[in-house]
Write a structure and sequence with these properties.
By secondary structure, the protein is an all-beta fold. It is built from no helices and 16 strands. The protein has two domains: 109 residues, Immunoglobulins (Immunoglobulin-like, Sandwich); 59 residues, no CATH class.
Length: 199
């Protein structure tokens, strides 16, 4: 027989990287019964009304757990488990920071895994439409031992010290750097070397 408990109210705000999220869906599930709120408004706000008459045994404040899910395509999703209290409750969501992946070990055991979503320097979420930008800037990895470029030293002084060094990478690019010397107690001592310059 249905209970006569009053409806339970859960309200809050759904936000994303660029502020409030309009049109997000918020659902609340207790057991096998799911209630859906009207999509969030232009201020990202929602109100979820849980009708106690849907449940044969109602719920117990401080004990019954409701699973809340906020989601919007292109923004992400977040799941929260909330213990129902006697008074109306507030639960906010941040879709841009957390996205849920459910890993099922078996049909009986499911585990939510939560990941931080990457954003670019402008705060835009990384997606298929906005992929990570990767730039090859010719870092020192071009000259590491794994790539093992061939090296040629130019030696024109009687002391055998090189004036410059030239390397050739596997792709055929040639880089050169030069050396600077100072005379200390009659000896030439290397005191500086230039950055690699592409030839």
């Amino acid at each position: 027989m249905p209970t006569t408990q009053p409806p339970h109210i859960i309200r809050g705000t759904v936000t994303g990287i660029n502020g409030v999220v309009e049109g997000a869906t918020v659902t609340g599930t207790i057991g096998s019964i799911t209630t859906t709120a009207i999509g969030t408004n232009s201020k990202g706000r929602y109100i979820l009304t849980i009708d106690a008459n849907q449940f044969t045994d109602g719920w117990t404040a401080g004990t019954t757990v409701i699973t809340l899910l906020a989601t919007k395509t292109g923004e992400g999703s977040q799941t929260v488990e909330l213990v129902i209290e006697a008074a109306p409750q507030t639960q906010d969501f941040t879709l841009s920071q957390i996205s849920d992946l459910f890993y099922y070990e078996s049909e009986q055991n499911g585990y939510p895994l939560r990941f931080n979503l990457l954003v670019d320097y402008e705060g835009n979420k990384i997606s298929q439409e906005n992929p990570l930008s990767v730039e090859n800037v010719g870092s020192s990895s071009d000259f590491d031992l794994i790539n093992n470029p061939s090296t040629v030293w130019t030696i024109t002084n009687n002391d055998g010290q090189p004036e410059d060094e030239t390397i050739t990478l596997a792709n055929g690019d040639v880089y050169k750097r030069t050396f600077t010397y100072s005379t200390v107690s009659g000896m030439r001592i290397m005191t500086a070397r230039s950055a690699w310059q592409k030839q």
